[in-house]
Design brief:
With about 160 residues, the protein is of the alpha+beta class. The chain has five helices and eight strands.
């Protein structure tokens, strides 16, 4: 398991929070995780200095008290049955990024602060994307469909930010 994956697992574990972090105190990864979780994340392979640096970095950024990103949590996959809790709403905003071609891997930035990455489909745009209205609608199994004003085609997308 690479260190970047281990780090992401640590961030996910910290996002769940604990009573100590809710009170403003920081507890180390070793205190927050079970031995099995610690090993599964690959943290047991870090040197003592690397682990201390990671704990210090997390303490400085105390993720449990950080505000949500601009644009709210709309667009992130919910935890409900089949990935659809029924509370997902349609998102409409204007594009700020300018591309003539949109395809798998393309990231589209919106005025509302959100960014979406295309996961399936492609679209050739006449005149570019910037300033066009982009509509993102919930689809089956927790997925999202991205539509660009003036084009009769939907692209599957996932929210990046």
């Amino acid at each position: 398991m690479s260190r970047s994956i281990a780090f992401l697992l640590c961030i996910a574990a910290l996002a769940t929070g604990s009573a100590a972090s809710a009170a403003g105190e920081f507890s180390t990864l070793e205190e927050r995780m079970t031995d099995a979780e610690f090993r599964a994340a690959g943290l047991d392979r870090l040197t003592a200095d690397e682990l201390a640096n990671l704990n210090a970095w997390l303490a400085r950024r105390n993720l449990s008290t950080r505000p949500a990103p601009a644009g709210g949590s709309q667009g992130f996959k919910p935890e409900g049955l089949l990935g659809d809790s029924g509370d997902r709403a349609r998102i409409v905003s204007r594009a700020t990024s300018n591309q003539d071609e949109i395809g798998v891997g393309t990231t589209i930035a919106l005025e509302n602060g959100q960014s979406w990455r295309v996961t399936d489909g492609n679209l050739s745009l006449s005149g570019g994307l910037a300033g066009r209205t982009v509509t993102i609608e919930p689809a089956l199994l927790g997925s999202w469909l991205l539509k660009v004003e003036g084009y009769n085609r939907s692209l599957r997308a996932t929210r990046v930010r």
